[in-house]
Write a structure and sequence with these properties.
The chain is of the alpha+beta class. Helix content is 27%, strand content 31%.
């Protein structure tokens, strides 16, 4: 099919686990003619869940792309994982689309993932559509759920179609007003959404008031509808049964007729080095600008960089730069992804989603461009949950250290919420993810793909250090060794900053008592001391260091002397500034059967947790929201499994750092045996 930017629709399916996103993905592909037979999650035959672990577990782990070619529309569809454990890949898809369709299970109603994905899509300025799935289930209370969605997310949530014949079919209520529905009335729903749409566009409103609905052209209705989506004035609600196919064709029609194309969505937030907005437009004739939102390490094709084209046209043999790289790479082959299939294409225009293979330098969130004019721009980063759950690991078999390192690098390239840390002082490699399940899946994948098995154990908690008061420090570094000596003297002041403020280095030296060329050396010494800590061996943060005086020698002063003087002066000041150890406090959300609430809240209270509230879900499930020290949750997965019989699940997200209790600080300090360097 030949298409242009105006006929492209980019849509991500998101929502809570179990809402039926993958089945809907299959139903849309089948209804749109992209696949001959609709696959089944239970049989492991879907286009989306192609990974062996996805088939075994019966749910998505990665995002999956496929395209649908309708007579007047080309749809790029992305299926995303619902479990919070795999949210990194799901949120990555938001960088590539104009519209997010949040799928809601009609039987379970509004769930944790529904709220979270609605928040993130709104935060990104994307058009949102609420898709109520499984409308054919006996326990579905569709009218009550519709009102609950409006109460939860605002009165701008309005049905764009309604179920009929007991959920056996769906009737459009935006373009039509006649027909019998299961609740409400088509005429009433039609009037409500029409009034909502026309009131935001003055010219459309004028035509509507002057001559009525008949005076409005399909283009006027589309433009007003799209403006409402872009400005958050409307969140359409539509109904489907992915299992029976009810409402699936109507969703495709909604996409074709009313959802924004790449030139209509909110402008992509591209920024320069000063974080000033850069205008990037969907013009095929301008310089190429594309953003890599997904990396796939395919065992047959090699490394794939999947990108969204925002501006310009990419063809085979196009020369592209990566970020501010000096040397371009040539696009040898250009692919469209359809599930696990890679279909070679001639070109990718603005709005297209495509991939290039075997470019080792390509990475997640890279900007691809064909002119040095775009060297220093980047897409505003997505806000990902912090990977707080950690495991220290080492290869099970000797001699696999290099193989382990390569495997971890490949896995971290694919998932922005899977991180690898190397702690030199402990000779320890730590992987961090969003949960124990997240890490378990990644390590199983490492074994399957790369043949590396590991032994794991709990890592050190990522404590930090800071100071509680202002103090001054001084050190004179002087060495004489027969030839040229070393001399540097530093006076500095340390002050605490607000939590999360980081580090500030301030120069208040007057009269040239320390030449400017030695100030970076002093800062280097300070940063070395901060990295090694002053109380318990953990990195320091949230403080300001001000150098205000010192001395130098015109012959003996060297960089190394001021590095040492800066470090020792800093440690002198910190020792007087009431140093404290900070611990990471995480937001915890625990989903459990209601019957286990007492045991779980009691267990959390015993871990110094603060219970913030509970949220009752349909189906007898309760979500407990709390804040707790990460150090207290090291063994929480096994504890939660034991208490709930394996039915509980949880997620962690970094909230802030706060001082540890004095007994804990004393224990950490005593366990740390610092090595005092000799001058």
């Amino acid at each position: 099919m030949s298409y242009n930017t105006e006929t492209i629709r980019n849509i991500a399916l998101a929502g809570h686990a179990g809402s039926g996103k993958t089945t809907l993905f299959e139903a849309l592909l089948h209804a749109g003619g992209a696949i001959q037979t609709q696959g089944s999650v239970e049989r492991g035959s879907t286009q989306s869940d192609t990974d062996s672990q996805e088939k075994a577990r019966g749910h998505s782990i990665d995002s999956c792309l496929a395209a649908i070619d309708l007579p007047r529309c080309h749809i790029n569809l992305i299926d995303t994982a619902g479990y919070a454990d795999f949210r990194g890949a799901a949120l990555s898809a938001f960088a590539a689309v104009e519209t997010v369709a949040i799928v809601v299970n009609a039987a379970n109603g509004i769930e944790y993932g529904t709220r979270r994905m609605m928040e993130r899509a709104k935060e990104r300025g994307l058009a949102r559509v609420l898709v109520i799935n499984k409308i054919d289930t006996d326990v579905a209370r569709l009218e009550a759920l519709t009102e609950a969605l409006r109460e939860e997310f605002g009165s701008e949530c309005l049905p764009v179609n309604l179920p009929a014949d007991g959920g056996a079919k769906v009737l459009d209520c935006f373009f039509h007003s006649d027909g019998a529905t299961d609740f409400s009335s088509l005429a009433e729903a039609h009037q409500r959404i029409l009034d909502q749409v026309v009131e935001i566009n003055e010219s459309v409103m004028g035509s509507y008031l002057d001559a009525g609905e008949e005076a409005l052209t399909p283009q006027q209705l589309h433009d007003a509808f799209e403006q409402c989506l872009r400005e958050g004035h409307l969140v359409p609600i539509c109904f489907v049964s992915a299992r029976t196919g009810a409402g699936v064709a109507e969703f495709l029609e909604l996409a074709e007729r009313l959802l924004p194309n790449p030139s209509e969505g909110n402008p992509p937030p591209f920024l320069n080095l000063k974080d000033e907005t850069i205008e990037v437009g969907a013009d095929p004739a301008r310089h190429v600008v594309a953003d890599v939102f997904k990396i796939v390490n395919d065992p047959f094709v090699g490394k794939l960089g999947v990108f969204r084209v925002w501006q310009g046209t990419i063809r085979r043999d196009t020369q592209l730069f990566i970020d501010d790289g000096r040397k371009p790479f040539k696009v040898g082959h250009l692919f469209r992804l359809n599930g696990k299939q890679h279909v070679e294409i001639e070109q990718a225009i603005p709005g297209d989603i495509a991939a290039v293979a075997k470019v080792e330098e390509i990475h997640f969130d890279a900007v691809l461009h064909d002119s040095h004019d775009e060297d220093l721009i980047h897409l505003a980063p997505l806000r990902f949950p912090q990977p707080m759950f950690g495991l220290a690991l080492e290869p099970k078999h000797k001699g696999q250290e290099q193989k382990l390192s390569q495997a971890l690098t490949r896995l971290s390239e694919e998932d922005p919420c899977f991180r690898v840390e190397h702690h030199k002082e402990l000779n320890e490699t730590v992987v961090r993810g969003l949960s124990d399940l997240h890490l378990k899946v990644m390590l199983e994948r490492m074994k399957e793909r790369y043949g590396v098995e590991v032994v794991t154990h709990p890592p050190r908690v990522a404590y930090r250090e800071t100071i509680a008061s202002r103090a001054e420090g001084h050190h004179r570094h002087k060495k004489q060794t027969g030839g040229a000596g070393q001399f540097g003297e530093v006076f500095l002041r340390v002050e605490p900053l607000d939590r999360g403020a980081g580090f500030q280095f301030v120069d208040e030296v007057k009269g040239g008592v320390i030449p400017n060329q030695f100030l970076p050396a002093i800062e280097k010494g300070v940063r070395q001391a901060m990295e090694n800590g002053a109380v318990a061996g953990y990195p320091m943060q949230d403080l300001r260091v001000t150098v205000y005086d010192g001395k130098y020698h015109p012959v003996d002063s060297k960089e190394v002397a001021f590095v040492s003087a800066g470090k020792k002066a800093f440690l002198d000041a910190v020792g007087k500034a009431r140093p404290i150890v900070l611990e990471p406090i995480v937001d915890v959300e625990v989903a459990i059967p209601e019957a286990n609430v007492g045991d779980v809240t009691g267990g959390l209270a015993g871990k110094r947790a603060r219970i913030l509230g509970t949220d009752t879900q349909r189906g007898g499930e309760l979500v407990i929201k709390a804040q707790a020290p990460l150090a207290e949750l090291i063994d929480y997965p096994s504890e939660l499994k034991a208490v709930t019989g394996g039915r509980g699940r949880y997620s962690l997200d970094l909230s802030h750092y706060e001082p540890v209790p004095p007994p804990v600080q004393k224990q950490l300090s005593e366990a740390w045996k610092p090595h005092v360097e000799e001058d």
